[in-house]
Amino acid sequence: MTLQAQQYWNAIGSKKDFEDPLFMDKLVPFLSKSPAIIEYGCGYGRIIQNLKDQGYENLVGYDFAEAMIERGHKLNSHLDLRLLDKPNTIPCANESKDAVIMSTVLCCMVEESLQQQIMSEIDRVLKPHGVLYLSDFLICDHDKYKEKYAQGQRKFGTHGVYTTTENLTVRHFTSQHILKLLSQFDVQWFEQIDFKTMNNNPALTFHAIARKIAT
Ligand SMILES: C[S@@+](CC[C@H](N)C(=O)[O-])C[C@H]1O[C@@H](n2cnc3c(N)ncnc32)[C@H](O)[C@@H]1O
């Protein structure tokens, strides 16, 4: 399904605006003085710009959609936004980053094997005690999702998976599933927040901060 998602984000998706918050007040206490920060699935660089506005300098965003990166370069030519050669991998050396941000990207990875792959990649590139800021969508009990989840369950066999009206298949998660994906990390903060999808539908989201466990 990576190809289907990549096609979506290169076409319809690259024209969307994203508004999901990044709670800077929660993240900043975990950052060292001049941290090397990357964002996986950076889109057009909204969060990287936000971090730059806070005074952070060592920032790189990666995304698998060329149209997103192009949009980012047009909007913010000073930002270091890079197209991934190989989706679901992070082209950074082992233990080279102080922080990784991944906001509303996991929902595009329907298969658990892909989710685990990207979590292992994040773990690999983080320095010992490095920080992951992860946010995404939780299964929402709003009526709007009942039929979508039921159809997704029938088609994909997983509760929380559904295909949007724009033909993008996405996944909403249980908090238990997210905590399982984070089991190789030391979770410092996890909060559920009512928000909305990029298509303005009601949504339940989570925000989490987790540290790499030093071995
Ligand atoms: C909802 S947007 C969020 C963009 C950005 N994180 C933000 O919050 O402004 C999701 C982004 O993740 C990217 N993406 C989705 N799946 C990906 C994958 N497997 N590898 C890399 N990027 C991915 C999409 O191209 C898109 O730019």
Biggest sheet details? 7 strands, mixed
Name the ligand types.
Answer: S-adenosylmethionine
CATH class term: Alpha Beta
Helix proportion range: 25-40%
Total count of strands? 9
Q: Any idea what the CATH architecture is?
A: 3-Layer(aba) Sandwich
Give the percentage of residues in beta strands: 25-35%
Would you tell me which CATH topology applies? Rossmann fold
Q: Which H/E pattern describes the elements?
A: HHEHEHEEHEHEEHEE
Q: Please, what is the average pLDDT?
A: 96
Class by alpha and beta content: alpha/beta
In the predicted model, the low-confidence regions spanning at least 5 consecutive residues are: none
State the end-to-end CA separation. 34 Å
The number of helical segments is 7
Radius of gyration using CA atoms only: 16 Å
By CATH, the superfamily comes out as: Vaccinia Virus protein VP39
Task: Return the domain count.
Answer: 1
Dominant shape:
globular
| Strand numbers in spatial order across the main sheet | 3-2-1-4-5-9-8
Characteristics of this structure?
two-stranded antiparallel ribbon; binds S-adenosylmethionine; Rossmann fold; seven-stranded mixed β-sheet; globular; 215 residues; alpha/beta
Could you provide a short overview of the structure?
It contains seven helices and nine strands; from the N terminus they run ααβαβαββαβαββαββ.
